[in-house]
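thread: overnight batch results

M.L. [08:02]
morning all. the overnight job finished for the chain we discussed friday. pasting input first so we're all looking at the same thing
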Amino acid sequence: MPATDWATYGGDPGGRHFSPLRQIDTSNVGTLAAAWRFDAGPGGLQTSPLAVAGVLYAMTPAQEVIALDATSGQLLWKRALPDAGQQPVRGLTLWRRGAEQRLLVGAGPWLVALDPTDGASVTGFGTGGRVDLRNGLGRPATQVPLAMTSPGVLWGDVIIVGFRTAESKPAAPGAVRAYDVRTGALRWTFNLAPRAGQPGSETWPTGAIATAGGVNAWPGMVVDEKRGIVFVPTGSAADDFYGADRKGANLYANSLVALDAATGRRLWHYQIVHHDIWDRDLPSPPVLLTVTQKGKRIDAVAQATKHGFLFMFDRITGKPLFPVEERSFPASTVPGEQAWPTQPVPLLPAPFARQTLTADMLTQRTDAAHKAVTAAFAGMRSEGNFVPLSVGRPTIVFPGFDGGAEWGGQAVDPRTGILFINANDVPWTGELAPVANGGTNSGEALYQQHCAACHGTDRKGSPPAFPSLEGVMGRHLEADVFGVIMSGRGRMPAFTQFDQAQMLALLGYLRQPATTDRRELAEGEASASPEKGYVFTGYRKFTDPESYPAVVPPWGTMSAIDMNDGRTLWRVPLGRYPQLAKAGLPDTGSENYGGPLLTASGLLFIGATVHDRAFRAFDAATGKVLWEALLPFAGVATPVSYSAGGRQFVVIAASGARDPSGPQGSSYIAFALPGKGSGRH
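M.L. [08:03]
and the structure it wrote out:
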């Protein structure tokens, strides 16, 4: 593909987020202006588009595939995908060999092949132009809820894919699979949740592997094309926070796995979290880079984590390129749980997010805010990473459940080995409670097992990321609630495993008022048996009474790290809260989702910030902001850059779903230097 195109998710097979274009540079970026805008409809939008031969390929929130004129934003064609649901689709895959071409995209549990010229189905691919990813996992399709939210990667004439699945049982058992891009035929499978007798199964209790779920490759992958190696980051095993039924290290969960792209054979793996009980999925694709150590050039792969660490390995051997210590951490106090006694901690680079919340770090924003969070903090456990959650007492998780790093990924300068990473830097809390009384199919039990982790045992949620379900049946039609549960939406996976009786029981429970606080119940049931089990009471940000983070800023950062020697070159706040900026606190940083884009001219572009809806260009050498534009919605996606019609464009997807209090809708916005006319479509 020409260097003027953005033909691969992440910019190239190695996921470097790097554009060789130089038309927009540090001297003229201040004149950058909107060139066109395409409105994509209501809902969340996280797609990083492709741009090839003057055509931009993207998705709408309704999971319609669209093709736009890359110079004007004019719609060329649109294709609705049946049975797609409302899961995010973060990118697409384009395969071309001579006159043959395929546009491959995930649509719920389907891998779909389209003709890039008009969006028509490639009827010779799979059945009617699509492959059902629920097949071949050794479980009935009703027990493997999954969706393909990140695009597959290409190796020759195969597309290699993973999937997203539920966070609680039954969840699909993780697998990486390669399909023929022409026919959809399965070429190979690597079971990330190993089958009985396969390598890795010895890290699970006898019999547990038969019902194991999770251990899935949801963030996306990268490929070393020269060597034919695909690098696969994996998530945690289900259930996320209580692992009494899966004692052991639980390979290949929370691991970076290197596979032979031609056969699926495992070459090496490195487990970054053993027996995860903190939902510390590897959150983003790894990135390929070349570094210099002791005068020797080494082809490396780097993996970022939610807990604020960067690991770097030799691509061929899997050997860590900076020292890693296995450090001891506290045992679990929850009946039945057996936390792994050690976890790996890299000595370099230094963590890119803070690791332990102490009393002197609590917010000083106002006296009232400081007093409130100090009082709350006194009742919490805060000892840093890898402290097991407790029953009846909140534990600080810092960085929070949303990172550290998130799904947007990182940018790397292939010329220097400098890596650029954005991070969240706010504390959350976690807590366990005994499961609800009653049978496993009771509405309350189903809610506690499958819904409470996000929406809370008290149904209050943690808005806006995790909406409150208090009174949900009074605010929405039953059919609409049913549809969201079955199809999923945004962060919420589809729960296709529920049968009719279970669905009726769950809806009946949601009609009842939420009168019991499971935290209070937990204090009276601390001696519950492990057979009864424990549930996570819900994701909770640790905030002050006005919903700002309870820690002193920065709450979001952008960093440049020299991966040759592990030095942090600079770190600056990323984002702001407009109301606080008006009050004289402009550089707090904020939550951010979506990654950076680096250009050969030394510019680092990123949206990502939820509250200020800004799109920024940093000087990659210094971290200074050189340009900023207000987007119509938050740019919670990774931007791309390409050249068309003689102009360099930078395009980002924006949507209002992350901030319900702000403007709603979604758009693709293209920026370019002043020149030919702009448009809106």
